Amino acid sequence: MSKGPGLFSDIGKKAKDLLTKDYLSDHKFSVSTYSESGVALTTTTVKKGGYSSGDVAVQYVYKNTSADLKIDTESNISATLTVANIVPSSKTIATLKYPNYESGKLEVQYFHPHASLTAAVGLNNAPPLDFSVTLGTPTFALGAEAGYETTSGKLTKYTAGITVTKPDACASVILGDKGDTLKVSYIHFMDQLKRTATVGEITRRFSTNQNTFTVGGSYAIDNLTLVKLKLNNHGTLGAVLQHEVIQKSLVTISSEFDTKALDRTPKFGVSLALKP
Q1: How far apart are CA 171 and CA 192, in angstroms?
Q2: Which of these, 4, 20, 3, lies nearest to 12 by C-alpha position?
Q3: Which fold does the domain 8-274 belong to in CATH?
Q4: Which of 57, 80, 230, 272 could be disulfide-bonded to 42 (CB atoms 3.0-4.6 Å)?
């Protein structure tokens, strides 16, 4: 495990990733190339329904600095500059977008063996402010985050969470949506590579008196093939088959359907990611 409690956004992330990552509903094809100078070029094409879109992303890494530039088919441009250790144990991230200048953001992250802090400010005339703090150790951590709108002087969000992490398991509790949602998750890893695992998540929304219970897991058939499944109490069943066709290149097939309405057409997604 890494030093320090990590960021607040890391609380519950392992369980969330297992239940959401790679579950696709569209067709995606991406190709990545890398140069010895530290430049990475990735082209991506996505087809959803009868509509196709794509983007080109370029990343340059040099020592403690990385720069990312992405351009999509609708002429949207986003640029991210990340610089580590301007102040020791810190990371500074600047994000700019065109033509939507209002979504630009400057974020500073600070890491300590027993705490982490983040502060982000929007790059516009009425900048929103976001803060988070996490206290603890790699084994036990608790934290909170909040968003503040400078124009109205009101809190736009506030969330609190707690997590307990062991080498083979992680449990988290998050109170979010301004206290309206309670989410409890637990993930248990069955192997050292953490490719085979089981996960459970319960979400309670107080305003609607609604509960959602989801169970899932992943199973490594061999070194090249991974299968993932998930099912919730509303009858939604999802499955993923991922295979490494050549080194670092993955083909992913995903499907999701409603077990309570089998006459509905299932959702299918396919992704092919080629890397040298």
Answers
A1: 18
A2: 20
A3: Porin (2.40.160)
A4: 57
Contact criterion met (CB below 8 Å) for 118 and 7: yes
Cβ proximity of 231 and 214 under 8 Å = yes
The three-class DSSP label of residue 70 is: strand
- 48/267 Cα distance (integer angstroms): 11
Q: Return the structure tokens found at 252.
A: 């992913």
Q: What confidence category does residue 1 fall into, taking pLDDT thresholds of 50, 70 and 90?
A: very low
- Write the Ramachandran bin of 194: left for phi over 0, alpha for psi from -120 to 50, otherwise beta: left
Helix (H, G, I), strand (E, B) or coil at 113: coil
> Residue 37: its pLDDT value, please?
84
The alpha carbon of 137 is separated from its chain's Cα centroid by a whole number of angstroms, namely 22
At residue 162, what is the residue type? I
> What number of other Cβ atoms are within 10 A of residue 152's Cβ?
9
Domain segments of the chain: what residues?
8-274
Element spanning 98, H or E? strand 90-98
pTM: 0.91
Rounded distance, CA 254 to CA 258, Å?
14
The CA-based dihedral angle spanning residues 25, 189, 273, 33, taken in that order and rounded to the nearest 10 degrees: 140
Tokens of 115: 């705490």
Alpha carbon separation from 80 to 98, 107, 187 (Å, rounded): 12, 11, 32
Of 23, 99, 37, 22, nearest to 67 by C-alpha is 37
- For 262-271, how does the pLDDT look when each residue is reduced to its tens digit (9 = 90+)? 888 889 999 9
Mean pLDDT of 35-45: 91
Query: Would you say residue 49 has pLDDT above 80?
Result: no
